[in-house]
């Protein structure tokens, strides 16, 4: 069955934030102090059986800087978080309680969200998924990007949006950096497609929380390239160069189902299959 959205009832448990916002540190361009980001809402499907479960999850979440409010609905198995913490940090905080967490929507009512699955196009790699970028437009001209990569060599990687969404030949077919030509014509410094950098450690993992003065609709259908390679000289078989097409994703409360109408599988069954394919 499909669980439909309903108004928050008196039986739902609400917890209000007590902690103050702290600075999130990242080694990259365009990183943000969380206090600079307008609060936005994210909804997660989380397996919950009782109010004690909700309390455990909420306690873990409130340890994060930037969490303003947590609301949970036992019937729909959904948790709603308002604040400005990165979605990836929220997922980890929930998983630290021994429960899974699946993002079901993000942003505010009327705001847009997008997602990009990062993959390597190296021909010798079997499971190519290497990362995920979640994007939420939190202002008229402000979009945040929560970037996570895994399974790549240590180093600093440049994150750019490309003019095209053709990734048939990896980064080589994705076009130039979005807005670079127009910026040169206008003699301005800021290039919309230059998002920043992410530093990957020896474990092969890296994450960063970025922001850019762009709108979600401008990015849909374009592609991200995350690479250490020199601009314009991309090798298709470089397994550490990651690409992905930017697609629109569900806004907050736009996707509250727990069973897929196509496959008949629960979100937890689908999540298990996705993780087996390398999905974050």
UniProtKB/TrEMBL annotation:
Family: In the C-terminal section; belongs to the Cu-Zn superoxide dismutase family.
Example of a GO cellular component annotation carried by this entry: cytoplasm
Pfam families: HMA, Sod_Cu
Annotated GO biological process: superoxide metabolic process
The protein's required cofactors: Cu(2+)
Entry-linked PANTHER family: SUPEROXIDE DISMUTASE CU-ZN -RELATED (PTHR10003)
Signal peptide extent: none
Name of the protein in question: Superoxide dismutase 1 copper chaperone
Gene Ontology molecular function: any one: copper ion binding
Entry keywords, A to Z: Cytoplasm, Disulfide bond, Metal-binding
Domain HMA, chain residue ranges per copy: 39-102
UniProt subcellular location: Cytoplasm
Keyword match Ligase: no
Organism: Pseudocercospora musae
InterPro entries to which the protein is assigned, alphabetical: HMA_dom, HMA_dom_sf, SOD-like_Cu/Zn_dom_sf, SOD_Cu/Zn_/chaperone, SOD_Cu_Zn_dom
């Amino acid at each position: 069955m499909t669980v439909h959205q309903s108004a928050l009832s008196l039986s739902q448990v609400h917890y209000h934030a007590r902690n103050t916002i702290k600075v999130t540190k990242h080694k990259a361009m365009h990183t943000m102090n969380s206090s600079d980001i307008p609060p936005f809402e994210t909804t997660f499907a989380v397996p919950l059986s009782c109010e004690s479960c909700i309390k455990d999850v909420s306690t873990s979440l409130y340890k994060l800087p930037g969490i303003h409010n947590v609301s949970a609905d036992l019937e729909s198995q959904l948790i709603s978080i308002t604040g400005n913490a990165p979605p990836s940090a929220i997922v980890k905080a929930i998983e630290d309680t021994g429960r899974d967490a699946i993002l079901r929507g993000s942003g505010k009512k009327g705001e847009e969200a997008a997602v990009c699955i990062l993959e390597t196009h190296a021909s010798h790699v079997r499971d190519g998924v290497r990362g995920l970028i979640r994007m939420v437009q939190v202002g008229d001209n402000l979009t945040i990007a929560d970037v996570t990569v895994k399974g790549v060599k240590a180093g600093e990687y440049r994150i750019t949006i490309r003019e095209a969404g053709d990734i048939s030949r990896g980064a080589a077919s994705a076009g130039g950096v979005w807005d670079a030509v127009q910026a040169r014509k206008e003699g301005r410094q800021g290039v919309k497609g230059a998002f920043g950098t992410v530093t990957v450690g020896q474990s092969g993992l890296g994450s960063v929380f970025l922001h850019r003065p762009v709108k979600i609709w401008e990015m849909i259908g374009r592609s991200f390239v995350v690479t250490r390679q020199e601009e314009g000289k991309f090798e298709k078989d470089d397994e550490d160069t990651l690409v992905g097409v930017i697609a629109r994703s569900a806004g907050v409360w736009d996707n509250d189902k727990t069973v897929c109408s196509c496959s008949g599988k629960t979100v937890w069954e689908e999540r298990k299959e996705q993780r087996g394919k390398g999905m974050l």
